[in-house]
């Protein structure tokens, strides 16, 4: 079958510096899943090897008190003079599994919550959350999915090939509108393109699937009577585990953006013992140029103020990051990121930022392309004292 063929042609894929996109639709039924609003007793099974069950299917069942599984979407404005952004997260995660989760709408123990965070063009922050009466997710073998957080007014529908639409109809918490994602870069898993039988572990015990590494996105929201409308680089992934987040992570740097014609996603992580794990992704013209979890395929290091590495809770947030991507036979991509604004309330363990980037590509032979610029949305966790 096609998937077996993809495995055996992996060497050829690397040699030609071209990754086949596997986002072709496959026929098949959508599978319905229901996640109750209450944490469940017993053991949680977490999926760490890809199947045909769908990139956006729930990956942990059931959600016990150590588990977390969520669907994450964001958009960062393409305009370097604005810091507009939006982040929407559909959680099925108890605070005992993901202790950094912001308090739910009502302070209840509901684990099915929808959160929205925005930054206005001038940097003003606003956020809200709503508790659902359970979450309904459908996922098809071709990658299509939909999710409804029951009773909140938050839902998504879409696929990595066709894009996504988030609808928000939550006037009770002050937000209505839509966010859409027209994909410009193929999906991937931590170590390679999307196919069955791939590892989904981006670090020990942490699952990750990136359905939308980059998209042309249009945001049109009404926030407490103020319109927030912008276009930019959109992104969607999901991550999960059946173990408590803080037991798995020492620190992590993650981000995405579009620089020149390149769509990039970076991940550079240390587990609690200081062991590094990485995932590098670069695409251009809707083709993957690099997707790897090999150490050395990417390094992300803090720069400027507070550039302590490894970072610890007591060090402040850095003013930027320096990133080296190995593009194989296309050479190297070097990116400098500078923080323009915090987009979550400042917290010693966690920061999420909007920033600008400059970069260059140096091919194996010939002239470097310099002066690439773009915007990024990125985050860091530091959980080590
Ligand atoms: C989990 O177990 C506790 C203690 O036996 C019980 O009170 C609770 O209802 C159980 N929760 C669920 C979702 O079954
Ligand atoms: C949840 O399930 C996982 C996997 O079986 C287990 O390791 C963990 O201890 C469970 N958590 C709780 C609170 O029972
Ligand atoms: C920033 O923009 C928001 C939303 O338009 C507005 O409510 C706020 O007053 C502005 N703040 C300043 C300092 O201009
Ligand atoms: C994990 O979750 C965070 C927060 O929702 C998200 O920003 C990030 O993209 C995810 N990344 C990885 C590698 O797990
Ligand atoms: C560096 O850390 C200090 C202390 O936490 C903080 O006040 C400062 O804002 C940080 N610098 C940046 C660029 O965030
Ligand atoms: C970010 O933008 C500022 C203001 O235009 C500029 O001074 C700085 O060099 C830029 N930094 C990067 C890394 O692009």
Automatic annotation (TrEMBL):
<dbReference type="InterPro" id="IPR056402">
    <property type="entry name" value="DA_N"/>
</dbReference>
<dbReference type="InterPro" id="IPR057722">
    <property type="entry name" value="AsqO/PenF-like_C"/>
</dbReference>
<keyword id="KW-0732">Signal</keyword>
<protein>
    <recommendedName>
        <fullName>Hydroxyneurosporene synthase</fullName>
    </recommendedName>
</protein>
<dbReference type="Pfam" id="PF25581">
    <property type="entry name" value="AsqO_C"/>
</dbReference>
<feature type="domain" description="Diels-Alderase N-terminal">
    <location>
        <begin position="48"/>
        <end position="240"/>
    </location>
</feature>
<feature type="domain" description="AsqO/PenF-like C-terminal">
    <location>
        <begin position="247"/>
        <end position="382"/>
    </location>
</feature>
<feature type="signal peptide">
    <location>
        <begin position="1"/>
        <end position="25"/>
    </location>
</feature>
<dbReference type="Pfam" id="PF24137">
    <property type="entry name" value="DA_N"/>
</dbReference>
<dbReference type="InterPro" id="IPR023374">
    <property type="entry name" value="AttH-like_dom_sf"/>
</dbReference>
